[in-house]
Amino acid sequence: MKTVYLDNNATTRVAPEVLEEMIPYLREWYGNPSSMHTFGGQLHRTIEEARAKVAAFIGAEAEEIIFTSCGTESDNTAIMSAVESFPQKRHIVTTRVEHPAVLNFCKHLGRKGYRITFVPVNGQGQLNIAELVKSLDDDTILVSVMYANNEVGNVFPIAEIASVLKERRILFHTDAVQAAGKIPLNMKELPVDMASLSGHKLHAPKGIGVLYVRKGTRFFPYLIGGHQERGRRAGTENVASIIGLGKACEIAAKTMEEDVSRMSRLRDKLERALLERCPDVRINGDVSNRLPNTTNLSFAYVEGEAILLRLNEHGICASSGSACSSGSLEPSHVLRAMGVPFTMIHGSVRFSLSRSTTEAEVDRVIDVMPQVIADLRRMSPFGKARSETFTRP
Ligand code: PLP
């Protein structure tokens, strides 16, 4: 059975061209870029070429790109750098729907005595900008708002927030991990101070990330040690993955426009069909302003985990906002922040497409899903009455 992989917000497949480009740096060119000898030292130039590709992809200068080990490290570094750079201040603003890489780091700082404001969202997951602005004061060091949400796909008004913060001279970080490759990013036009990216969300390998730091922004390193990354991130460079990320960015820059229109067409087809064929289902998120590849649906009277297990039997990979399946014991904090009723959170499923998702794969999910839902509802004491009204398409 061929796998239908619709969990691309969790991770993406390494593009074959990316892998191809990386292999010589694992097999033959295994030197350390900090070495004096040519064998290692020459890798320095290759890293700089990759840096230039990443920079071009997001409209940045090469020197504004710091390679890290993942999106989480980039997020932690951005927040910690702000805190260390302004030791006299104690207030950080973020949102209730951030990835744990931001949310839990802010909670950690909260336990250390920092004041943290978690800005709420409404029922569609839209950010309350007025509340964000109201929370700012002279003690505010940093605002960190994600560019796009990983669970429901909502895109936040980063440019609008950035212009407010610029006037107030407050640092602004955006977690653009889910946006990169799905939304054009141009740091020349977007006045954020720092932005995080992660390779494995964009067809590069796991274990490579980027922190963009605008020239002139006060910066304090998180990993302290050697002089790598101009003293801004110590640790021997992950050469092969850096090369891979450079290639992935080069490809994404060329194909993004076409990828986005394909992904959104297929996502819309999938969503429309499931809404038509499965009764008692709702879309979670802001349908007018979402990532082109993401749909998050709640099916009443069924457990998301049960849906995932059934889909898994059909070789279909998706994810759920309900307990355990996401590796946590808590139901999705994003859906909770949006006020989605608990029963609907437990019945939520996220499908996330990539540029390699095919029409046939989407059709397979459209075929399988209505029956999965109907069967589960038939078995559920809450779903019994409902399933009797369900007619097979
Ligand atoms: N931020 C967002 C929005 C994410 O979706 C993820 C990963 O799912 C991360 C940060 C963390 O990235 P990484 O897995 O590279 O640490």
Mean pLDDT: 94
Number of strands: 13
Order of helices and strands: EHHHEHEHEHEHEEEHHEEHEEHHEHH
State the end-to-end CA separation. Answer: 23 Å
Counting H and I runs of at least 4 residues, what is the number of helices? 14
Could you describe the largest sheet, including whether it forms a barrel? 7 strands, mixed
Question: Per DSSP, what share of the residues sits in E-state strands of 2 or more residues?
Answer: 5-15%
- The neighbouring-strand order within the major sheet is 2-8-7-6-5-3-4
Roughly what percent helix?
Answer: 40-55%
Low-confidence stretches: 387-393
Note the overall shape.
globular
Descriptive report:
It is a single chain. A 7-stranded mixed beta sheet has the order 2-8-7-6-5-3-4, sandwiched between helices. Strands 9-10-13-12 form a 4-stranded antiparallel beta sheet. The chain has a two-stranded parallel ribbon with strand order 1-11. Helix 1 packs antiparallel against helix 9 (239-277). The chain contains 14 helices and 13 strands. It has helices spanning 16-27, 38-41, 43-57, 71-85, 100-111, 129-135, 158-168, 228-231, 239-277, 304-313, 333-337, 342-346, 359-379, 384-387; strands at 4-5, 65-68, 91-95, 115-119, 140-144, 171-175, 194-198, 209-213, 281-284, 294-299, 316-317, 319-320, 348-352. Strand 5 (140-144), helix 7 (158-168) and strand 6 form a beta-alpha-beta unit. It is of the alpha/beta class and 393 residues long. The chain binds pyridoxal-5'-phosphate (PLP). Pyridoxal-5'-phosphate binds at residues 70-72, 75, 99, 101, 146, 150, 175, 177-178, 198, 200, 209.
